[in-house]
């Protein structure tokens, strides 16, 4: 073979080898991204160091006890993931208003009570028995945004056939504790002029669940009559521990997905307050004589520990406090109205208030 031909042949071999090498790397990268079943370890590992800190890896399959819709929800793409088409209603209450009102038709209005902005949900045809009753919602959103004023009030208002007032309390970082407590107390005091305390229910999700109990403690300090029932849907009651409950170390807002990051939100909220202030951290308050209360959480909820600890504090105080825990789902999963478990949760919320406030809850979906 001539010298020139040998040179071209050598170059061709080099190029072919490079193509094969890059193809193998691309296939390996694709395999790594897809991670077929055989690359997932069959068992988890764990060890405990001298300080008692656990270093663990776990293989956690999707629970077959969850509904098919919930199993898809658990494996859904998250915000920022390619192909994400989730509802993401947490920070989009305008969209939530449209979706929820189509599923649960109600009258919706906005206004002010005691100078505080509110959103008001009223049933299309309120039973006479319910016209002397009202529910107050304090929404979720980490004290920094409106994560649920429509999301939390529309289905409960529809199912209980009762008026719901959602308090748009002041938010962090401009307004840390106790601004949200003070705003909710102001609305409650104004509603006391029209409604008997035993005919008022107070409830919320996440930050709103925490706020629900904080407000009740503050009402007692002010020697005001307490509401007839509390709904505490995934919250916490102790800011002195830095939110270091077990589930805060396991889960994110989206359950097992994502990276656990140290939380400073609790410090921002409490600001300069004593972390054991009984209003800020109700586990240190005298809870005796508190209204019947319903707690709801889920097994992949980062606030499951906080919810369970707070419920136990209620039980130690002799309060009628029931805890319902859903399987496999993440924090405030009921913000997705299409899940069967969400509909079940709304039903429990509605039937609880129906029972405690003696409502005509003809549309209630659940009995507890």
Task: Explain what you see.
The protein has 368 residues and is α/β, with parallel strands linked by helices. The chain has one domain (89-357): Alpha/Beta hydrolase fold, catalytic domain (Rossmann fold). It is built from 10 helices and 10 strands. Strands 3-4-6-5-7-8-9-10 form an 8-stranded mixed beta sheet, with helices on both faces. A two-stranded antiparallel ribbon has the order 1-2. A hairpin with a 5-residue loop joins strand 1 (45-48) and strand 2 (54-57). Helix 3 (93-103) runs parallel beside helix 4, helix 4 crosses helix 10 and helix 5 packs across helix 6. The chain is globular and about 60 Å long. The relative contact order is 0.12. The model is unreliable at 1-38 and 81-86 (pLDDT under 50).
* CATH 4th-level superfamily: Alpha/Beta hydrolase fold, catalytic domain
Query: Class, according to the CATH hierarchy?
Result: Alpha Beta
Largest sheet: number of strands, sense, barrel closure: 8 strands, mixed
| Tally of contiguous helical segments | 10
Number of domains: 1
N→C terminal distance: 90 Å
In sequence order, what are the helices and strands, one letter per element? HEEHHEEEHEHEHEHHEHEH
Strand order of the largest sheet: 3-4-6-5-7-8-9-10
Number of strands: 10
CATH architecture: 3-Layer(aba) Sandwich
CATH topology type: Rossmann fold
Computed structural class: alpha/beta
> What is the average of the pLDDT values?
85
Low-confidence stretches: 1-38, 81-86
Shape: globular
The whole-angstrom Rg is 26 Å
Strand content: 15-25%
The residue fraction in helices comes out at 25-40%
């Amino acid at each position: 073979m001539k010298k020139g031909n040998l040179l071209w042949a050598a170059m061709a071999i080099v190029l072919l080898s490079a193509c094969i090498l890059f193809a193998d790397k691309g296939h390996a990268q694709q395999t790594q991204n897809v991670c077929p079943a055989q690359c997932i370890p069959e068992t988890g590992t764990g060890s405990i160091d001298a300080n008692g800190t656990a270093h663990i890896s776990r293989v956690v399959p999707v629970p077959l006890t969850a509904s098919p819709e919930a199993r898809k929800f658990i494996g859904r793409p998250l915000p920022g993931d390619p192909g994400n088409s989730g509802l993401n209603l947490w920070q989009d209450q305008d969209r939530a208003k449209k979706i929820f009102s189509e599923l649960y038709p109600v009258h919706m209005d906005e206004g002010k009570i005691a100078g505080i902005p509110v959103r008001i949900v009223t049933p299309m045809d309120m039973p006479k028995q319910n016209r002397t009753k009202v529910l107050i919602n304090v929404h979720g959103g980490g004290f920094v945004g409106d994560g649920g004023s429509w999301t939390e009030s529309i289905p409960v208002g529809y199912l209980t056939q009762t008026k719901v007032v959602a308090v748009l309390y002041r938010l962090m970082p401009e307004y840390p504790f106790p601004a949200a407590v003070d705003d909710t107390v102001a609305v409650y005091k104004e509603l006391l002029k029209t409604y008997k305390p035993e005919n008022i229910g107070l409830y919320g999700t996440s930050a709103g669940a925490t706020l629900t109990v904080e407000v009740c403690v503050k009402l007692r300090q002010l020697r005001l009559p307490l509401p007839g029932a509390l709904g505490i849907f995934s919250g916490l009651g102790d800011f002195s521990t830095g939110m270091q409950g077990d589930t805060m170390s396991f889960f994110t807002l989206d359950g097992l997905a994502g990276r656990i990051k140290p939380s400073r939100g609790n410090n921002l909220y409490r600001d300069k307050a004593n972390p054991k202030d009984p209003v800020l951290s109700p586990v240190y308050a005298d809870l005796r004589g508190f209204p019947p209360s319903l707690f709801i959480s889920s097994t992949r909820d980062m606030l499951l520990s906080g919810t369970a600890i707070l419920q136990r504090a209620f039980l130690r105080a002799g309060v009628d406090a029931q805890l319902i825990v859903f399987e496999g789902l993440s924090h405030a999963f009921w913000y997705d109205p299409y899940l069967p478990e969400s509909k079940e949760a709304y039903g429990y919320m509605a039937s609880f208030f129906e029972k405690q406030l003696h409502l005509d809850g003809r549309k209630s979906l659940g009995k507890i």
